[in-house]
Specification:
Number of helices: 5
Radius of gyration: 10 Å
Number of strands: 0
Structural class: mainly alpha
Largest sheet: none
Helix content: 55-70%
Distance between the termini: 12 Å
Length: about 60
């Protein structure tokens, strides 16, 4: 799965995708779509996710690409 590392970080930090979605200001189905590759991540969403999850900008490729 493409976003397995990101999903692990979400679970570690927020516990659930629902709580992460709320923090992102997105719906849970939208987050699910993004994590399954059906909906593309916007650059601004990637930056916000990194801030919320404590992911250093230089590691963005490890989580999103």
């Amino acid at each position: 799965m493409k976003f397995r590392k990101l999903q692990g970080k979400i679970k570690e930090t927020f516990g659930t995708q629902k709580d992460f979605a709320a923090a992102m200001g997105l719906s849970q189905p939208t987050i699910t779509g993004k994590l399954t590759g059906k909906i593309d991540w916007k650059r601004s969403e990637m930056r916000k996710a990194c801030e919320l999850l404590g992911i250093p900008v230089e590691k963005i490729n490890e989580y999103f690409f």
